[in-house]
Design goal:
- By secondary structure, the chain is of the alpha+beta class.
- The protein folds into three domains: about 250 residues, no CATH class; about 475 residues, no CATH class; about 55 residues.
- The protein is built from 27 helices and 19 strands.
- A five-stranded mixed β-sheet has the order 1-3-4-2-9. A two-stranded antiparallel ribbon has the order 5-6. A two-stranded antiparallel sheet has the order 7-8.
- Helix 9 runs antiparallel to helix 22, helix 12 runs antiparallel to helix 13 and helix 21 runs antiparallel to helix 22.
- It is elongated, with a radius of gyration of 35 Å.
Length: about 900
């Protein structure tokens, strides 16, 4: 493979031009600040390289830059040998900076379009387009679409992979505009990444990426076609950046659909597919948010009518129930009605509407993924990525540079160069897996540390924060409970720890992936995606899983409490369960994450650009050339929009995995995403240099991750309702234990539920390590206290052991999980089966395009064969005539 690559670089790829490509000496800026061309006004700039002139350095430091200069000169000579044209211009702001403009002539473009299998138009689409289902409401919907008068509608063509030998079959009207600027930039970047810059012995080093990392070049980027807020008057400028800003990135366009075709044309398919996915996800969230809001409103109206909440707040019921201390020694007795306000708020989320909403969300996530596959199939066809195979993706320059071992290709049986042996690959993968596991264990250790913090501070809060004793905190004293204070403070600390670990792990994950040396960029991103998601999954969700499935589940009872690490008594939930604490945790993490991400994505790039312009700009912006204006913007980073994907997938997890505890999660996600789309659009359009366009068929490794999260969400929501909420115990009481033979009521009712779920404990049974030091003034001569559990009372022959109701509740919880999971999974399977991944009209168009491509290839081959036969026929006839002439003349002229 490495040998073939060398041959491609210096034999097949070197284009024979009519005149030798030349590198112009440093040309003075011609004063056209928005020009996209060389000084001659003819050759278009396809890429820009920026370096610092070593001749301007101090004499005593100049020798340290000679190696950089040699590497740069070698690279530029390689580019010219490969057919590129270069022109250098000194900066008008900082005379130390040199801008090297790169142009690809027509022959070079044709050559590399064939190499990269770029699909180009061959014939207008002759199939009738499918009418829009919203066409009857066009008078309304037209206001929600970008202006067609400004953007226009692209002609629809069938396309085929480009081949130079069959150029006449392609729809070439104008050579200057046949290849779009994004195609030209993509091909230029491909060459730059494979042009050699240094030879040491038999080792050849190549690629602009290495030169950027080592500081030989300060930047490399394609040009924006104009300023984002000013129309360019230069000929040849389509002003697409301005259109994107006005119709997409500007705040006034927040209500409009995204101009996806223009985004794809300007930034490439990879950026286009991200915004298409984000827009589709946000649109589907609108449905989930509407149902979630309905569930919240239903819960809000039930908080004042809930029987069990009324019993908690009733002075004669909740006020008369004395609860046992929740920690040893320092904690004291407390009245149940001190949790009145939190029990009311719990009703908002812990009700039958939440159960219905959780089931709905399990179906919603299936519909979202299935309809996204269909929409993605349409985009694949429209954007010519249907047959974009991994074989067409070229190896990464970093991979090619390390190819020093030989192996036999299992398919071709030919020798090829690889960067490592099978043993070396196993070592690299093992090291990567070990490092990821170490960091996951580190996260779990931080979770344990936060749990210890919760246990430690809960003791202090329990001793001090009883609502009726906090008159100085009016009007909030009813909301300040030990559990709530502990949860809020622990959630904030957890969020800070999450952010710190994220920053550290990002660098580690990138280093591990670089060390593994994946072959293609897709493989690289998939490997990094899996590592980052596994880490983020544990980092963000571990605290939520603890509250949902661990907290309050193994606490024992007052006589024999359970201790963590033999020292800290395990946390208990509120009498109504841990659902409210889980809601608080989700709110803090989701809200804090959204605020933090917006600061990073919006504020920091804007401040950096402002400072850079203030420090470097000399004079008006109108005298600064286009390439220098773009240099003053922020670089996008090697991973592009990877972190935007990661942010949205983590949000998707919050929306689906824990939605049973927080029905408003889709509402918050919807609001966030409406801003996220425009913030990302504004950021890449106004604050960042233009990204190198890249091909992408789908959202890559994120698709199976989303499917995995969707499957897991069914189980987590069923278990949250069963184990974290109080719904199942309430149903068991209502249908079984409120009536004969277990209850005293004639009909099923919720009256008496609170008293039924609180077991009795004799305070004389406290151990010396648990008995509270102090008792409140109202405790008087009470001999018992209550605690949350289903156990037999003191004096029973099975004292403090689980009673019959406990086993009924456990059986009901397990039955609920099994039934709900099977019903939802079956529904998901049916929906996945009946909804085809590719729409019928897309399949027809794909078949039509393949047929036309085969016809073109057949006609080209037929012409070639006919031409060869014609030449062969002429040769046979000529030979026959000579033989006849020789026989007639009987001379020796035919002996030759």
């Amino acid at each position: 493979m490495y040998d073939l690559m060398e041959e491609e670089l210096f034999e097949y790829r070197v284009v024979e031009l009519s005149s030798a490509p030349c590198f112009s000496p440093q040309a003075d800026f011609n004063g056209k600040h928005d020009s996209l061309f060389f000084n001659d006004g003819v050759r278009r700039i396809d890429f820009v390289l920026v370096y610092e002139d070593e001749d301007k350095k101090d004499f005593d430091k100049r020798h340290t830059f000679q190696r950089k200069k040699r590497r740069r000169e070698y690279l530029e000579a390689s580019l010219m040998k490969m057919g590129m044209a270069l022109e250098a211009t000194r900066s008008v702001v900082d005379d130390k900076l040199i801008f090297v403009k790169v142009h690809m002539p027509w022959d070079v473009l044709c050559t590399y379009a064939e190499v990269l299998h770029i699909k180009l138009p061959i014939q207008p689409n002759d199939l009738a387009s499918r009418p829009s289902p919203w066409r009857f409401f066009s008078c309304v919907t037209k206001h929600f679409y970008p202006s067609e008068d400004k953007i226009g509608r692209e002609a629809d063509f069938y396309t085929a992979p480009f081949e130079k030998d069959r150029l006449e079959y392609f729809y070439v009207k104008d050579q200057d505009n046949f290849f779009t600027p994004s195609m030209r930039s993509r091909m230029a970047y491909y060459i730059l990444n494979r042009a050699p810059y240094e030879i040491r012995g038999n080792i050849k080093k190549f690629g602009i990426t290495k030169l950027l990392d080592s500081g030989v070049y300060k930047a490399a980027y394609p040009l924006h076609d104009c300023r984002f807020n000013v129309r360019s008057t230069e000929l040849g400028s389509p002003n697409e950046r301005l259109l994107l800003y006005e119709e997409w990135a500007h705040p006034k366009s927040f209500y409009k659909m995204q101009p996806l075709d223009l985004i794809r044309k300007y930034y490439g398919e990879k950026i286009g597919i991200y915004f298409a996915w984000l827009g589709f996800y946000t649109l589907m969230l609108a449905l989930a948010a509407a149902v979630g809001l309905g569930s919240f409103i239903y819960g809000y109206h039930t908080q004042e009518t809930s029987t069990w909440s009324k019993e908690v707040c009733d002075p004669n019921i909740g006020g008369a129930i004395v609860m046992c201390p929740q920690c040893d020694l320092e904690c004291t007795y407390w009245r149940l009605n001190s949790t009145c306000e939190s029990s009311k708020k719990l009703c908002i989320f812990d009700n039958f509407g939440t159960l219905v909403f959780a089931v709905f969300m399990s179906v919603w996530v299936t519909l979202f993924l299935e309809f996204w596959k269909r929409y993605q199939a349409e985009l694949e066809y429209e954007w010519d990525t249907v047959e974009f195979l991994e074989q067409e993706e070229q190896p990464r320059p970093e991979y090619e540079a390390k190819c020093s071992h030989e192996r036999i290709n299992p398919i071709t049986r030919a020798k090829e160069k690889v960067p490592y042996t099978a043993c070396g690959r196993c070592i690299r993968l093992s090291l990567g897996i070990g490092t990821v596991l170490f960091w996951i264990l580190l996260i779990l250790a931080s979770v344990v540390a936060i749990i210890v913090y919760r246990l430690a501070v809960f003791f202090a809060f329990s001793a001090k924060l009883r609502a009726q004793d906090l008159k100085e905190l009016e009007p909030f004293r009813e909301y300040v409970t030990p559990q709530m204070a502990t949860t809020v403070s622990a959630s904030i600390i957890s969020f800070v720890v999450i952010m710190i670990l994220n920053i550290l792990y990002e660098r580690v994950a990138i280093w591990i992936t670089d060390f593994e040396l994946p072959r293609t960029k897709t493989e690289y991103e998939n490997s990094l995606t899996l590592k980052m998601f596994l880490f983020q999954f544990v980092n963000y969700y571990s605290s939520c899983f603890y509250i949902a499935f661990a907290k309050g589940k193994v606490v024992g009872y007052p006589k024999e409490p359970v201790y963590l690490l033999g020292k800290y008594r395990n946390e208990e939930c509120d009498p109504g369960g841990c659902l409210m604490e889980l809601t608080t945790q989700l709110t803090v993490i989701m809200g804090g994450k959204a605020i933090w991400n917006n600061i990073q994505e919006v504020l920091l790039p804007w401040v950096k650009n402002l400072i850079f312009r203030h420090c470097t700009q000399a004079g008006s912006e109108k005298v600064i050339p286009r390439w220098e204006q773009d240099y003053q913007l922020q670089p996008i980073g090697k991973l592009g929009l990877f972190y935007e994907y990661l942010e949205m997938v983590i949000q998707f997890g919050f929306v689906t995995l824990f939605v049973a505890s927080f029905p408003l999660a889709p509402v918050l996600a919807l609001v966030n995403n409406l801003f996220e789309i425009r913030v990302d659009a504004w950021k890449i359009t106004t604050q960042f240099r233009r990204m190198v366009p890249e091909k992408a068929q789908d959202i890559g490794a994120w698709q199976p991750i989303l499917q995995g999260v969707a499957i897991l969400a069914v189980a987590t929501n069923a278990m949250i309702i069963a184990f974290s909420s109080d719904m199942i115990p309430r149903l068991v009481y209502y249908w079984s234990f409120s009536v004969f033979p277990y209850g005293d009521h004639a009909e099923s009712t919720m009256s008496g539920y609170i008293n039924n779920t609180l077991s009795i404990f004799n305070i004389d049974d406290f151990s010396n390590f648990s008995r509270p030091h102090n008792t409140p003034y109202w405790f008087k001569n009470s001999s018992t206290c209550r605690y949350r559990d289903f156990r037999n009372p003191p004096g029973h022959h099975k004292e403090y052991q689980y009673n019959m109701q406990y086993w009924h509740v456990i059986a009901a919880k397990m039955a609920f999980i099994i039934v709900v999971e099977h019903i939802v999974y079956f529904t998901k399977f049916v929906l996945s089966y009946i909804i085809p991944d590719v729409p019928v009209h897309v399949r027809e168009q794909i078949k039509r395009e393949r047929y036309l491509t085969q016809v073109i290839i057949h006609e080209a081959n037929l012409k070639l064969v006919t031409k060869r036969n014609a030449v062969g026929g002429v040769n046979v006839a000529l030979k026959h005539s000579i033989e006849v002439f020789c026989r007639k003349n009987r001379g020796g002229c035919c002996s030759g």
